[in-house]
Amino acid sequence: MVRRVVSANGSMRQGKSATTVFGSSRSESRAAVLKDVALRAGVDASTVSRVLRGDERKPARAETRERILQVARELGYRPNSVARSLRTRKTEAIGLVIPDAGNPGFAEIFKGVQTATAQTGWHVIVVEGRGPNHPDLGWERLVFEGRVDGVLVLTASLRDPLVQRVARSGVPLVLVNRRSDGVVGSVVVNDARGAEVAVDHLVSLGHRRIGHIAGPPTIDTGRRRTAGFRAAMRKHALPLRNSWIAGTDYTEAGGAEAARSLMDKSGPDLPTALYVASFLSGIGAMKVFKDAGLRIPHDISIIVSDELALAAHTNPPLTTVFMPVRRMGEAAATMLLAAMAQEPVADIVLPDEPQLVLRASTAPPGEGWRVSR
Amino acid sequence: MVRRVVSANGSMRQGKSATTVFGSSRSESRAAVLKDVALRAGVDASTVSRVLRGDERKPARAETRERILQVARELGYRPNSVARSLRTRKTEAIGLVIPDAGNPGFAEIFKGVQTATAQTGWHVIVVEGRGPNHPDLGWERLVFEGRVDGVLVLTASLRDPLVQRVARSGVPLVLVNRRSDGVVGSVVVNDARGAEVAVDHLVSLGHRRIGHIAGPPTIDTGRRRTAGFRAAMRKHALPLRNSWIAGTDYTEAGGAEAARSLMDKSGPDLPTALYVASFLSGIGAMKVFKDAGLRIPHDISIIVSDELALAAHTNPPLTTVFMPVRRMGEAAATMLLAAMAQEPVADIVLPDEPQLVLRASTAPPGEGWRVSR
DNA sequence: ACATAATAGCCAATCGATTGGAATAGGCCA
DNA sequence: TGGCCTATTCCAATCGATTGGCTATTATGT
Fold it and tell me: Would you state the pLDDT for residue A158?
């Protein structure tokens, strides 16, 4: 690790020492409820309810309506969503299950989800789910205690028992960037095509010895990127060596490990270019190669999947394949909203073309790696 | 509505064509409720409730208890959280209002919040609030429709009317990394000390002409970093020039703009080192300087606030001041939980020392900027 | 002017769980 | 055997909003 931590001399401060107890000020006046409005407007609560939610089937007299609206405004009335949910059996909330908030790709997906849900007034409960083995209390409860009307799952491995159980229970569920056996309803980007774009680019630069750092085989996205990679290599009639493919999870540490294993397995016969299935892994791999004395892109070209703002600032700046991740989040949320409205769902692959974002980590092959070990 | 999209080049694909309507499978058997368990166990619903939640004051006979537990297990009974919330007037959910999910610092705070809430089983509803002017329907409703028991706000400017309104309404609220006039209950890191650590470092390298890219003056954190910067400069008896200080928001574009304005204002008299109040701004500023032909750190040293994993991979790797951001999220959530339990709250500054993380973007001053324009 | 229809608004049940008070049964003591 | 106590369990109200059914009131038609 590069981190050299220098601690400064100790000091401790505390702000204003003022303290308050919320309970004291809270009771100043409890929030108005439907009955309060009804009483003050001299009508029944049911009438208030109908007026406020604009029930067409039983309109109120214009005069009554005005009076009710007026009183509601005066009292600052807001309908209690919990009571409403109990009666209507709708929470207007969805769950978003993510593997790790630290992964920068997640933020994009979340933004996509927000744009779809914010418009319709739905709320998003975010939970970090920890793998299929863990007790995973968090999102288990979310669903089975009826706190949400549906879930978006970004963590599912191919056979995640919890996912399958939820799907069977009938709670609307959409997988994002994932698929799971026997579960219908997923949105993924065109991973195979993304891999192809990457390989095409490397080939067009003149590379023929191309390797791959793959995602975990338990995750569908990882598999499809790898399959796409293999297909693209076949398309160009290029050799595929097992020693040029290393699997890993979607982390920086995993990428570093994969890079080391690649160097170990290949010896002096390292590929001249690498397609890495995740941004963070790419970062980790790049560091390992540089530390080993390889120059990027001179000795080895690197192209990674998923475009992030930070790719422009790495050393060297990373060539990436932009995958429409935000769109994916939006499409998934839209699909979930549809599913919750009893509409049919399907497994879809976003038709958006992955885009090559050209930077400095790829170039025509140099003389290759000839460092004695 | 499920969008069926057709792309230009006809690469549209659709996965398995199987589709299902959730409604059909859902009704296979509606979830068991309290009454179902009661009926089947031959007891009253109230008894079931007391047994399942382990009510000490009215214990059931051992035999009855076993029977109830058995039936509950058979039926897979889970208490409905909406009904429970209505009765108990507790949602066991909190709101987390963030300015922009794209900011990588947010992920850390979120993780801190999660560690505090996950243990106690509370859920987190995340909303992107858009500034104090916007209609901001999102988190307005969250609070006033009783969907959460409290909120953590990461967006508050010094006098955000919505924040003040919520605080007055008595809904427990804790500001994170922010403060707001007249609102008690906030957790911030020691920004002044962070700035001091940065300046001390630059001074120890031999810099005397030190500039600052500040956060927005409407945000308390930004102000305190700037105040800390000024104090540290005074401590070292170093000159402070207004042309060496530029304000901006916490974005990459803002940082770039600030850097340009700094070069414009200073002319050939640019500082030899810069303390930047946010990671993203630092990235943006660094790019502008490099594009202008400055070498970092030879011509200008840069140190930024907030440590992120990606700082190690920028070009050059960024020297940062690690602020205990995750701890801040955790402390804020803990404080909020306390506030919701009617305990007193205060404004606190985390005592954790900011840590210098030394990398390659800072070095002793070179000969300075002497490029004619 | 009378019958009928339309309209406005009220009543009461409901969603599902919690909780204070009442009721029943058995046990104990005199 | 009668009275009292305690351990269990049941009853019913409650949280706040929604909604089908019903009544009272007004409008319409002949």
Answer: 79
Helix or strand run (H / E) with residue B329 = helix B325-340
Q: Closest residue to C18 by CA to C1' distance?
A: B87
Distance CA A7, CA A12 (A): 14
A with B: how many residue pairs have Cβ under 8 Å apart? 275
Does nucleic acid strand C have an atom less than 7 angstroms from the CB of B29? no
Q: Which of A14, A243, A50 is closest to B349 using CA atoms?
A: A14
Domains of chain A and any CATH numbers: 3-79 (1.10.260.40), 90-189+326-349 (3.40.50.2300), 191-323 (3.40.50.2300)
Provide the pLDDT for residue A105: 86
From the list B145, B190, B346, the residue facing A13 with the nearest CB is: B190
Return all residues near B237 (Cβ < 8 A) that are at least 6 apart: none
H-only helix segments in B57-160: 62-75, 81-88, 104-120, 137-144
- Cβ of A52 near strand D (under 7 Å)? The reply is yes
Decide which of A123 and A130 is more confident. Answer: A123
Task: Using alpha carbons, select from A40, A29, A113 the residue that is nearest to residue A71.
Answer: A40
Mean per-residue pLDDT, B328-332:
97
From residue B229, alpha-carbon distances to A208, B225, B260, B276 in Å are 54, 6, 21, 10
Q: Are A241 and A212 in contact (CB under 8 A)?
A: no
Average pLDDT of chain A, as a whole number? 88
Q: Is the overall model pTM greater than 0.90, yes or no?
A: no
Q: Within 10 A of A35 (CB to CB), how many other CB atoms are there?
A: 11
Q: Is the pLDDT of residue B18 over 90?
A: no
